[in-house]
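dumping this here so i dont lose it
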């Protein structure tokens, strides 16, 4: 299996924000080029990379996003440098003094937060920034923290969401490219997910994927009871907005089943991940059969777990912190996606419908004989 870790570390070196994905996209395209995988970009900058060979039973798409919550400067005036939060970060995690990294004058420069104020618009947050000289409207930035660190079994990063999804899809795509079985796998790397599934919606709206494609969204999503770190990737039956498609889930289940057959230590979970939305929801609105794969995530959107759990906060305050995932869950996600691309080559074995119909056949006569009471 292609190792997703070095690719994750590489992507993590290029901070991104909604609408500011150019650097991370460039790193992604270099990885695709180095593996000889062809790619295109749609008019909105979403990246589509496709491995197609033979006549597989089912065409698949795997979707992840390149952006992560961050901020942009909206005005520089008599009251200072004013910014706007891009993406959902709880205001409790943005105390005065929060260190920032700002792209100003073409360079990353240190900055810090003076204050974060709730806006009249629900969820919107205005930031007052102690910015480097020369800051201007249109500059942008991220929270200052390590881009990527391996800490025992944990990977701590600013943006597990969704670079871990991108890296596990890349690994599956590279495995598919190196294989010899029938496959039609499109990896879709989108922009501006954190602004409201924008890139994914535009890909779906343009019909860039054939309509019989099954779409698998791959995301880090807040860990929940029943979706725990280190217990394997989570087959995601839905998100906070909608439930997904059983036929699409069946492809993931079949792949997970064949991994378990070959390796009794194989671990995967199955859960409704209601901690947020994911891009499967956008594709579902346009008639695609969708499902999801999630990596249980700590410090979701850089907000310390304690803020969500309403446990007592540390005295130094709940400032933004790196997200973290379990290394085994990432490796498991890459493995499961790789196997899913293989399993889609032929028809699915022994579906639930076949089992139900066999039972119905067995008991049909008995039910008919006793139909009258
Ligand atoms: Zn997110």
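and the seq i came up w/
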């Amino acid at each position: 299996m292609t190792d997703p870790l070095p690719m994750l570390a590489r992507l993590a070196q290029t901070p991104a924000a909604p609408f500011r994905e150019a650097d991370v996209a460039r790193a992604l395209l270099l990885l695709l080029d180095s593996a000889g995988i062809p790619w295109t970009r749609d008019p909105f900058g979403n990246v589509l990379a496709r491995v197609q060979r033979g006549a597989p039973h089912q065409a698949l798409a795997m979707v992840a996003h390149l952006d992560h919550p961050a901020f942009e400067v909206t005005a520089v005036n008599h009251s200072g440098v004013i910014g706007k939060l891009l993406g959902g970060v709880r205001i409790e995690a943005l105390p005065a003094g929060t260190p920032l990294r700002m792209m100003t004058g073409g360079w990353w420069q240190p900055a810090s937060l003076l204050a974060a104020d709730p806006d009249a618009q629900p969820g919107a947050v205005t930031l007052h920034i102690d910015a480097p000289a020369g800051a201007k409207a249109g500059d942008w930035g991220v929270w200052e923290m390590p881009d990527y660190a391996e800490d025992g079994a944990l990977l701590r990063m600013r943006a597990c969401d969704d670079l871990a999804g991108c890296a596990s899809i890349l690994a599956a795509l590279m495995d598919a490219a190196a294989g010899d079985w029938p496959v039609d796998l499109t990896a879709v790397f989108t922009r501006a997910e954190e602004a409201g599934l924008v890139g994914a919606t535009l890909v779906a709206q343009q019909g860039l994927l054939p309509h019989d494609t099954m779409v698998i969204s791959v995301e880090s999503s807040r860990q929940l009871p029943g979706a725990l770190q280190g217990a394997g990737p989570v087959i995601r039956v839905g998100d906070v907005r909608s439930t997904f498609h059983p036929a699409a889930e069946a492809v993931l289940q079949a792949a997970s089943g064949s991994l378990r057959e070959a390796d009794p230590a194989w671990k995967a979970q199955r859960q409704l991940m209601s901690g947020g939305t994911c891009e499967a929801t956008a594709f579902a609105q346009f008639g695609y059969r969708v499902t999801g794969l999630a990596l249980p995530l700590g410090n979701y959107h850089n907000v310390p777990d304690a803020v969500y759990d309403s446990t007592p906060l540390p005295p130094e305050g709940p400032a933004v912190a790196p997200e973290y995932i379990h290394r085994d869950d990432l490796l498991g996600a890459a493995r499961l996606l790789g196997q899913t691309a293989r399993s889609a080559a032929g028809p699915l074995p022994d579906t639930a419908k076949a089992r139900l119909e066999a039972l119905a056949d067995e008991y049909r006569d008995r039910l008919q004989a006793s139909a009258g009471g």
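The mean pLDDT is 94.
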